[in-house]
Design goal:
This protein has 100 residues and is an all-alpha fold. It has one domain: 30s Ribosomal Protein S18 (Irregular), CATH 4.10.640.10. Helices cover 42% and strands 0% of the residues. The chain contains six helices and no strands. It has helices at 25-28, 39-42, 55-58, 62-77, 85-91, 93-99. It is elongated.
């Protein structure tokens, strides 16, 4: 014989967490274009460690995330954006971005 449940609720009675749907900033505002030359716009989509932020934290759709990753890579290659956190500390990019 099995023991009784102490919680008093069945697993199927619990409500599942449904994350809030965000609207893609590029889909909402059609005039915003993803361009590798606009480093100040792209900085919003990289972390303080220099990594690309995932879709679920930025709210960008899959189509624009692919375009965004290409633009970030191009901007890094042309030294408009940093590759690592060490580059951020060395160049002071993060400090200027926070104070502005």
């Amino acid at each position: 014989m099995r023991g009784k449940r102490t919680s008093g609720t069945k697993p199927r009675d619990r409500k599942k967490f449904v994350p809030k749907q965000r609207a893609c900033p590029f889909c909402v505002d059609r005039s915003r274009k993803i361009d590798y030359k606009e480093a100040h716009t792209l900085r919003r989509f990289i972390s303080d460690r220099g990594k690309m932020e995932p879709r679920h934290s930025t709210g960008v759709c899959a189509k624009h995330q692919r375009l965004l990753s290409t633009a970030l890579k191009r901007a890094r290659y042309l030294a408009l954006l940093p590759y690592t956190a060490e580059h951020i500390r060395w160049s002071g990019v993060g400090i200027r971005a926070r104070s502005a």
